[in-house]
């Protein structure tokens, strides 16, 4: 028996992935900081187990892997769905804010990779999340862009290091997705309209736009895919459809 461990399992994207995996018959174990919300999501998706934990703390990450291994039998896949959003130019970003962004988005991803490499000795799949902001230049994204670009570097290096062990690592780089995390942007009419206009397909993403690819990358169906960064971003990361005159 085996299954998938999801950090940030109570968030919009994490919960959607858990639901998609459940529909595929894949057992899941969820980790998040908010116990009440975590228990609610775990019940909704029929998770095999869950535990509260902070992905920025190594001991919590190691404990989550240990508990997941006990419940699932083996962790065959792990998804890191932990992160934050900070939209500020560099000169207005405090040192504490920058440190927090790096810790939440990059350090936590590294700790999950580190523990996965020590735990998933029979191979499997690691799925990380970057952002379109980590691939193209977007104004006022300096801190989050630095962190998310770091996740891309972590992805490809991890894939190279552990390929011989059959441990794969891939990354999804979304555009702006409607989740509780992005609510400060999407609840503001002008900010939402501006963000929507940046995406060539003319709309923001939803967790449902992410979950199918995520489930695929966490399964054996993608056993020949590693070291890849997939833009699920409405075209934001690669297209320009409007010509400025």
Question: What do these coordinates show?
Answer:
- By secondary structure, the chain is α/β, with parallel strands linked by helices.
- It has a single domain (3-232), classed as NAD(P)-binding Rossmann-like Domain (Rossmann fold, 3-Layer(aba) Sandwich), CATH 3.40.50.720.
- Helices cover 44% and strands 16% of the residues.
- The protein contains eight helices and seven strands; from the N terminus they run E-H-E-H-E-H-E-H-E-H-E-H-H-H-E.
- It has helices spanning 12-23, 35-45, 58-72, 95-119, 142-162, 183-186, 189-198, 207-217; strands spanning 3-7, 28-32, 49-52, 75-80, 124-129, 167-174, 229-232.
- The longest helix is centred in the middle third of the chain and has 25 residues, at 95-119.
- It starts with a strand and ends in a 13-residue tail after the last strand.
Which key features would you list for this structure?
7-stranded parallel beta sheet, 245 residues, globular
Count all strands and give the number.
7
Poorly predicted runs:
none
Overall spatial form: globular
Largest sheet descriptor: 7 strands, parallel
Largest sheet, order of strands side by side?
3-2-1-4-5-6-7
CATH level 3 topology: Rossmann fold
CATH superfamily: NAD(P)-binding Rossmann-like Domain
Domains, number: 1
Assign the structural class, choosing from mainly alpha, mainly beta, alpha/beta, alpha+beta, or little secondary structure: alpha/beta
Number of helices: 8
Task: Give the termini separation.
Answer: 59 Å
Strand composition percent:
15-25%
- Helix fraction? 40-55%
N-to-C series of helices and strands: EHEHEHEHEHEHHHE
CATH class: Alpha Beta
């Amino acid at each position: 028996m085996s299954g998938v461990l999801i950090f940030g399992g109570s968030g919009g994207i994490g919960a959607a992935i858990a639901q998609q995996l459940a529909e595929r018959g894949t057992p899941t174990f969820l980790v998040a900081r908010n116990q009440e919300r975590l228990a609610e999501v775990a019940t909704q998706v029929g998770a095999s187990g869950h535990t509260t934990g902070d992905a920025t703390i190594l001991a919590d990450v190691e404990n989550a892997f240990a508990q997941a291994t006990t419940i699932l039998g083996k962790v065959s896949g792990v998804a890191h769905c932990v992160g934050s959003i900070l939209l500020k130019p560099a000169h207005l970003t405090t040192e504490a804010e920058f440190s927090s962004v790096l810790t939440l988005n990059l350090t936590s991803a590294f700790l999950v990779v580190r523990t996965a490499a020590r735990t998933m000795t029979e191979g499997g799949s690691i799925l990380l999340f970057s952002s379109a902001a980590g691939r193209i230049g977007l104004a006022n994204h300096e801190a989050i862009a630095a962190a998310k670009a770091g996740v891309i570097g972590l992805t490809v290096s991890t894939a190279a290091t552990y390929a011989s062990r059959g441990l794969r690592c891939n990354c999804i780089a979304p555009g702006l997705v409607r989740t509780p995390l992005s609510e400060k942007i999407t609840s503001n009419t002008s900010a939402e309209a501006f963000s929507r206009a940046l995406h060539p397909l003319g709309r923001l993403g939803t967790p449902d736009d992410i979950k199918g690819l995520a489930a695929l990358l966490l399964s054996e169906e993608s056993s020949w895919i590693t070291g890849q960064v997939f833009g699920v971003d409405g075209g934001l990361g690669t297209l320009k459809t409007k010509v400025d005159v």
